[in-house]
Amino acid sequence: MATPQAPSSLTDHMTLEEVKALGLKLAAHCMDFRDASVRRSLTQLFVTLALFFVSFTLSFLALQVSYLLTLLLSLPTGIFLVRLFIIQHDCGHGAFFKSKAANDWLGRIMSVFTVTPYEFWKRAHAIHHASCSNLERRGTGDISTLTIKEYRALSLSARIKYRLYRNPIVLFIIGVPIHFAILQRLPFWHPLPAKKIWKSVLGLDLALAVVLGGAMYMLGAVPFLIVYLPALAVASIVGGWMFFIQHQYENTYWEHQEDWNFHLAGLLGSSYYVLPKIMQWLTGNIGIHHIHHLNSAIPNYRLQECLDASPELQAIPIRIKFFESLKCARLALWDEDGQRLVTFGTARGVAA
Known about the structure:
With about 350 residues, the protein is mainly alpha-helical. It has helices at about 15-30, 40-60, 65-90, 100-115, 120-130, 150, 155-165, 170-180, 195-220, 220-245, 260-265, 275-280, 290-295, 305-310, 310-315, 320-325, 345-350; strands at about 145, 270-275, 320, 335, 340.
């Protein structure tokens, strides 16, 4: 029997077993970059908080000039909010500080800014890392993705529902902001049982009522909301897109449980989103996602360092540039035979 070949998105000359061995080797390389620096973590925290508060203040003051100027300033405010989420994200992985207690307390504080329940998100995201690209373990902390066969087995109404869900406007412009602002306020409609997450969700709701309620009392409810909500919408859309493009691209990796491999999911099922340096900094290097999935304990500010220290990691060709990434928004179904993510139109041409 011929040796099975690795997907062409990696290299054509390596067998699957060689790719697995490479994954183990690169995972060992990543282990050297796990240690957090208190100085670098605190610097990143204070700089990001300062930039967020300055931008938010300017947005609020701009109300006296023009609301269009306030909306314009909501763009940097929202992106600084994304950077605060990256800090919460690192805390959830135990990567921002060496102390678990310090990570958890800072993660809870950041959740007031990001309106994302820390303990709930931490648990769901851990499941995502443990099951990424596993066809039998979809549904927790990921973008819902069906195979062509599964889609064809749906009823007409279910197909319409899935097509609406995967529509880029519905998914990013409508769905993600609603998820962050509203659905995360309730311990229902999530893959984790309500009894396991209600303390995290309702605890954050109480904190938001106190903190945001206090801000509205001091600044005025309407002025605060018309400044804060656009920034939150920007943050959720940018964050939602970043999460989407990290795993949803044509030559990604999906396998059934019996063939699934953690390191292949990191190398092949997680992209390297190549952004301009300023955007890479603003998004906390999270676009270097293949390394993050090989070892989630690496602080965000060491991901580039880990990449630069390994020519083999640099040679992994799952590199997506910004304009290339826009084409991925239409991908919606996994073609098991072709081992690629395809559009609804392409799926119609795939033999049943």
